[in-house]
Every structure is written in C-alpha cells, then in structure tokens.
Amino acid sequence: MPAVFLKERSFIHVTGAEAEAFLHNLITTDLVSLGADEVRPGALLTPQGKILFDFMIRRDGAGFLIETDTAQQEGLLKRLTMYRLRAKVEFTATEAEGVTVAWADEAGEGPKDSRFLKAGVALTRVAGQHGHDSEALYDALRIANGIAVSGRDFPLQDAFPHDVLMDLNGGLGFRKGCYIGQEVVSRMHHRGTARRRVVTVRGNADLPSSGADLTAGGKPMGSLGSVVGSKGLAIIRIDRAGEAIAAGTPILAGDVEVSVSLPAWSGLTFPASADEASA
Predict the structure, then answer these.
(1) Rg of the chain on CA atoms, in Å
(2) Quick check: 51 and 156 in contact, CB under 8 A?
(3) Is the pTM for the entire model greater than 0.85?
(4) Residue-range domains of the chain with CATH
C-alpha cells in the first residue's frame, strides 16, 4: 500500500518552558487535548479570521514540531518570533527534508493525521523519505476525503478555517479561549454563517486545470483546486450548490458537467434554500 514522500515540507521545533502556553494562545489548535500519538492541523490567522499560515502540529518530547509547506517556513518563523516578546520559548527551523505519508498496511508507527482519522483512514506523517510512491496517489486520497491544502486548493489570506473544514477535523478549538482571529471564527461558528465549504468534484470527463470556475446557471460558486483526472476538490458556496441541485440546474467546471459532494465524514449537507442556509 502507498507510502508517499512529500519533499516540499519543512519543520519548526518549538521548545521552552512556555512553549505550550505560547502556542495555545496564538494558533487555532487546542494543544491541551493534543495526544502524543496524533498530529493535528492548525493555523495562524489574521485578525480578520483568515488563514495566514497553515500547518500540522504534533508533540515532540516536551515541545512541539510544526510541519509546514517549505515556502511558508521562513515567514511563519518570523511571525512566531515577532509574537514571542518575553515568553520562554525557542524556535528552531530545520532544513527542508520532507515528510512521508503512509496509510493502510504501510501506516505503521508514527503520529496519525487527525484529518484522515475523521474519515476513517489511518495515515501517518513521518519526517524524511521512507517511500517512493507517486504523489498523485496521496492527492487522490485527499480528494476522496475532502482534505484541502493551501497553495493547491486555496490561497493564504483568502480562506476562513470553516471553509477548509477545520471546525470539524481537529484544527479549531472552541473551548480554548482567545487566539488571534478567534472572535471572528467564533462568531461565524455560533451564528452558522459559514457558506463556503470543501467539496469533492466528479466530472463526466477529465476536469479542466486547477483554477477553473464552477458555475450553475451562469452564476459562479467557486473554483477548482487539486485535480486528478475526473476528480478534484473545490471550495464552493454550498448555498448556491444546494439551490442548483434542488432545481436540477447543471453544475459546470469550465465546460465539463460535474457533480459535487460534501465529505461524508463531515456530516454536512447542502442547504436546499436560502432560508435553510441561514438556519
């Protein structure tokens, strides 16, 4: 079974007597409940509640290990350092070494990715290269389970955590108190105003390239992210998708007719009307 090396992943070690308190009060993830055998998604938000940096975080001895896209590592390190002030915490960036993701029989030992566990898939993330399977296999697994990643499925500073299902996959803590952007995220959650969500897109032919618009009756609802053949991910307005589905209006990705589905593990459904969308 697959073991895929993702070479564009890097790490930041966070250590020190106040490492947990510092991070817990800064990022979206609830670190108090984070177990030693799991790795959770997290984000550092803008004050407006949008994702400035996204990452995976796990415990590492007495500290933490943040896994992020290599292109984000330097910027995230600078931002963490800016917020440190007098906190007893240290940050150490590693050189890009990548991470191996493995699942099914190859999962073996290692911290399990909480996003995939929600979907019933045991997937481990281990630093370094321990596999040689095609990255397309991992992309197909992400698409099938509605796991979006920045750069591929959404641009940074454009998406709210709810857009990428962080309220459901372990990436948002709603009982942890304040963090940057918390007020906006909490208001969105309790008022039920999240309109954009990740969906899996299935075409009746191969899908167009990432970035192609999804429309129904000429109205835009989102755009394609990751694509593998006739399947892909998109972050769309689920109220508009629900109206199109209820009315029998074809949904198009470019010129290709498609169906869209919310991840089964999420428990979400498409609202059939504007009133239902705001309920």
Answers:
(1) 19
(2) yes
(3) yes
(4) 3-135 (3.30.70.1400), 195-277 (2.40.30)
